[in-house]
Amino acid sequence: MSELTSAVCGIFIAFVPLAAAGLALINAGLSRSRNAAQAMTAALCVFGIAALTCFVLGFGIQSHPSLPSATIWIGGKAWRFAGQGPFFFRGLQFDGSAVPLAAWLQLSTAGLAALIPLGAGLGRWRLGSICASTVLFSAVVYPVFAHWVWGGGWLAQLGGNYGLGRGFVDTGGSSVIQCAGGFTALAVTWLLGPRRGKFGADGMPAAIPGHNVLVVLFGCVLATVGWVSLNEAGGILFGGAALASVPLIAINTLLAAGSALLSAAAVTRFRFGKPDASLSANGCIAGLAASSASCLFIRPAEAVIVGLVAGALVIYSIELLELRLGVDDPGGSVSVHGVGGLWGILAMGLFGKDQGQLVAQVVGTATVLGFVFPLAYGLNWLLNRVSPFRTDSEGEWQGLDLHELGAGAYPEFVSQGEEFMPR
Questions:
Q1: CATH code: domain of residue 324
Q2: Second label for 148, Cα 20 to 30 Å away, from 82, 223, 272, 365?
Q3: What distance in Å separates the CA atoms of residue 371 and residue 318, rounded to the nearest whole number?
Q4: Is the per-residue pLDDT at 413 higher than 80?
Q5: d(C-alpha 26, C-alpha 219), whole Å
Q6: pLDDT at 203
Q7: What is the pTM of this model?
Q8: Cis peptide bond prior to 388, omega within 30° of 0
């Protein structure tokens, strides 16, 4: 990697935390006002814990294709399944090569992925359990799967060992970040159960709107800037992109985001009579999530299709999960990141020009559903047995800001709704 490429990549990596800041603001805005400070505090804690866990253990497990890895032999071929270091970043040569840049990027992407489940647990997930769950996610779920995709692991080897296109391709993290975080969010929602008053006696869900849609929309803008940087850095480090491809990656990312937002707005206009601002923002983030896998390899017109499908898909997915499966996901994390990420993985196979690419992408999708989700659910189930995830009824009635932090986000205003007034 040339010095110029390293410098450009470093600039992009420096802006990736804006994606995490955007998600934190979206979660805070979609929460009730009495839970907003806890949502932002949890986001900061999660980002810090994930980065530290990545430094201590996570990047050693994820590793890099140029570093040694534990392998198994199947069919006369060596398959890499786990990194062998460096732990604590020991031995890293900060010489502008790809390895330290990848390590730097992972400090942010591990935190970004760990932020996603927060949106699913808004209003009822205890801060201490959030922190403990983040450790497990950042030490086990995320780095193991990241090694298979970005560390030269067996999914990436499907091309060389089996001739399936380029192997499993995910330059910006539709699977590693979005699906891993999104399906961990699904596990969390099932373990927590719905918020008080969300479902009536007949099973029909009640609308519990977020308290500040302007914060949500501003978070969407920040996330878009960070996402472009994430896809650029991922394209260079994990897709072998040349600097000449930088405009293409940015154009595809922005087109996917914009078309997804418009698609979500149009679907909500058709379904509900008026476009919904928060669902449109969710559509935009779903378009970003879907764009990450293929942003380096598709044409702009195809990026528009990716976005249009993602924006519509997220609306119907939220409705299906809530009405049919009883999933209470205030931030839409499962649909936006999990379902949007899955569509992005498959879109890379559908629009990819290499023979066998779709098969490789389907294998990756099956791995997400058959390994990542069960692992995340199992680890969080065990943790929930030791340290219960859900706050008590008094904490949920009072609001997590006062219950866990001792002060609200808006001390000069009343933050309880009528259904939460003194009984």
A1: 1.10.3430.10
A2: 223
A3: 23
A4: no
A5: 5
A6: 82
A7: 0.94
A8: no
